[in-house]
Amino acid sequence: MTGIQALERRMPDIPMKPGRCTQVEFEYIRHGTQTLIASFNVATGEVDLATVGPTRTEADFEAHIRQLLAQCPQAPKVHLVMDCLNTHQSASLVRLAAQLESQAIDLGVKGRSGILRSMATRAAFLSVPNHRLVVHFTPKHCSWLNQIELWFSILVRKLLRRSSFTSPAHLKQKIIELIDYFNRTMAKPFKWNYTGKPLIS
């Protein structure tokens, strides 16, 4: 989740009273943004790992995935569901996936040859089902199929929509606190209720 704004409201909220809901100040001071890279465990409903920082570079994403894999070093296979963001199909992620294989793999040269030639060839390699790290990419314009998007909507409703943050560090602290609270008290697997029936007739 990129571009999470640290907005400080210019005036405090007007509290709720009989017949009126809380009124939130619409003018704000912008203190910058943060990016949240999060891994959601669909079996437990918990956010297993969250990285909050100022950027979402290829190196940031690789470091996040390395931390995630370190949590389950003995797992025979790890399945990740992601959208088609460029950092999700990066050369560093391909190299990481290749390191997990028992035999050395010739990856080629980025932008020129082999598996590293293009985003399409990298995505194809990451999607190979018999690798230890298997990435399932959601179709374009269908990132809602990824359950982390449901959790991001919870983050927006519970924290971001009405809160006031005095700095990017304050925003980061509040996001991490919400994740800890969510994992302790609210985490449960999401229950899909879409049956596959076309949404239009």
UniProtKB/TrEMBL annotation:
InterPro entries: RNaseH_sf, Tc1-like_DDE_dom. Pfam families: DDE_3 (PF13358). GO terms for molecular function: nucleic acid binding. Residues 10-167 form the Tc1-like transposase DDE domain. It comes from the Bacteria. This is Transposase. It comes from Oxynema aestuarii AP17.
